[in-house]
Amino acid sequence: MKKQLLIFFTVLSLMAKAQTSSQQAKNIQKFIQVWGLIKYKSPQGIAGSFDADKVFLTNMASISQADEASCNEQLLALLKENTAGVVKPDPVADKSLYLNQNLDNRWIKAYPKNLQWALQRLIDYRNASGKHHYISTTGKNDGLVPNEAAYADYDFKNEAMNLLALAKAWAVIEYLFPYKYVIGKNWQAVLVESIPMFRAVDSRMTYEKAVLTLENAINDTHAAGILNQLKTMPQIFKLVYYPPFDYEVSQWKIVVKDMLNDSLAQVSALKKGDQILAINGISSEQWLKAHSALLPASNDAIKQRHLSTDYKGRAFAFADLPAKTLAVKVRRGNSLLNLQLEMLERRNSKQVELINTYFRAKYNAEQAWKGYEELDGQIALIRAGRFYERSLPQDEEAEITFSKQLKSKKAIIFDMREYPQAPGLFYYYLPKALGKPAFNFGRYYRSALQNPGAFVSEEAVETFMSKDIKPIGDLYSGQIIILTSQNTQSMAEWFSMMLRQFNKNTVVIGSQTAGADGDEKQLNLPGGYQFVFTGNGIFYPNGKETQRIGIIPDIEFKPTATEIASGTDAQLQKALNYINKIK
User: Fold this and answer.
1) Cβ atoms of 127 and 89 closer than 8 Å
2) Is the pLDDT of residue 464 over 80?
């Protein structure tokens, strides 16, 4: 009987703890939502007199542990303290200039009527000051969200501070991320899911994983900037082994591009050009999608880019392996083979040096690529990622020479498959040389200071191109080819949009791009980390999005396994073939 009573009271105790934990989570959710609204929308938050971090840390314990009625009372008191000066807003002059898709305030219906009224007052309030303590739109370090402490020495063991990291990141997406509406999931639901994860943080690794998971939730390629900040990446992804080859993930298959050295080529069962179709009985597509779950990306093309090898040796496709030896199904030419893949070990210093030696040599070889080349005397090739500021025309005479040089060509190929190294080339020198006056080639939206959460259109031509362009001669009428791929990201997408509208003889040859077009923003988080996201909205003139979609090519190009392993630029060759067919 005593044993049965003990079990009964144990069950009751567990149920009570679960109920308490559930109430605390609801309180935390409500607090974060109200706190974020005050931070970005109240006169005090706008002016900087609302110390958001201090208010959060001071109130978290009492609000989280309160019963529902007490929680609501504390939130109402906080709202009353920070609604002084709130007046009825003036009507917006031109609603067509605003991007309002993110404005969804139905969440306030979960609060009592008196709280709803106070919340709605802040929602309706408009900032007429022309500035905001927590928002920057011009000036130096515009990419960094202002007035956010870094807490660089934080040790990740304080629940309130961990939840502050969640609150800051969640609120910055709620009010400063133009693409919240295309995330693909309700952002309130993401908050609910994230609270237990951040409450459970007890180390740097669990903290980094929680932040990484939140970054992944916004489906934004810029968010992958968090990967470069992770200090516990090997532990999070369980990076123990490394393949004996360089590879690319294409169409959800692993294509072996090259063996890391001749010795490995002789002993490995896999060969250059092989396609891995399955690993340990799991299809490559299923395997790879599971391994991409924590890799922030706007679309599947970028998930596959992240899974491929890179100079940092991250080989995420082979993370969290059960053993050093894998059973793989391979397509080699027309044959299907079942082979054993022996992996290298990251804890083996000699094997790590072997990996590093291969990628150093590959990197050095790519440095020899030229920013400007002439092909067959009739075609100019400009590689955006290899054309540097030092190569720009230095005076008016050089600009005229540059113009004559380009206009003499039958075709110009712009290789946008790397990040542009000379923005001025596209912003000023190319339009001038090719005879193109400045023009608005898209819609550019920045945060609306008067109503955070909305975004206002920048109509000035200098947002897009230099207003000082004085075209040299007539517009270039030859063929323009733009090469794009999954590596075409942000500024490369922006300038691809521009080039696409240069003349009527422009064609884009490539595949889906990064789908992250717009200036990158960074928000300081406790521990010295920065939460990364796209901070401006970029659309085509007709209002069509680029976020998550990217630059859609006119002629799709996806290399075959043979082309990937050949070491040649098959995409460039396709462009040359296209040009040569033009009469």
Assistant:
1) no
2) yes
> Phi first, then psi: what are they for 243, rounded to 5°?
-70, 155
Backbone angles phi, psi at 530, to 5 degrees: -130, 125
Indicate if the pLDDT at residue 21 is higher than 60: yes
Give residue 331's pLDDT band: very low, low, confident or very high (50, 70, 90).
very high
CB atoms within 10 A of CB 366: 12
Residue for token pair 């928000």: 523
Average per-residue pLDDT in the chain?
94
Q: Which residues contact 540 (CB under 8 A, 6 or more apart)?
A: 442, 443, 497, 546
Using the predicted structure, report yes or no on whether residue 475 has a pLDDT greater than 80: yes
Taking each helix axis as running N to C, give the angle between helix 52-64 and helix 159-176, from 0 to 180 degrees, rounded to the nearest 10: 120
What is the distance between the alpha carbons of residues 192 and 395, in angstroms, rounded to a whole number? 58
Phi, psi of 499 (to 5 degrees): -60, -35
Give the residue extent of every domain in the chain: 236-366, 372-581
pLDDT, tens digit, for every residue of 145-164?
999 999 999 999 999 999 99
pLDDT bin (cut points 50, 70, 90) of residue 85 is confident
Burial class (CB in 10 A: 0-12, 13-18, 19+), 197: middle
Of 491, 516, 505, give the one whose Cα is nearest residue 424: 491
Q: Are strands 506-510 and 479-484 parallel, antiparallel or unpaired?
A: parallel
- Overall average pLDDT of the 521-550 stretch: 96
CA distances from 181 to 170, 173, 185, 218, 545 (A): 14, 10, 8, 10, 12
Smallest Cα–Cα separation from 443: which of 360, 373, 544, 345? 544
DSSP 351-408: HHHHHHHHHHHHHHHHTT--SEEEETTTEEEEETTT--GGGS--SHHHHHHHHHHHHT
Class of domain 236-366 as given by CATH: mainly beta
Q: What homologous superfamily does CATH list for 372-581?
A: 2-enoyl-CoA Hydratase; Chain A, domain 1 (3.90.226.10)
8 A C-beta contact, residue 39 and residue 135: no
List the single range of 134-138, 205-209, 530-534 with lowest mean pLDDT.
134-138
- ∠ CA 521-527-529 to the nearest 5 degrees? 20
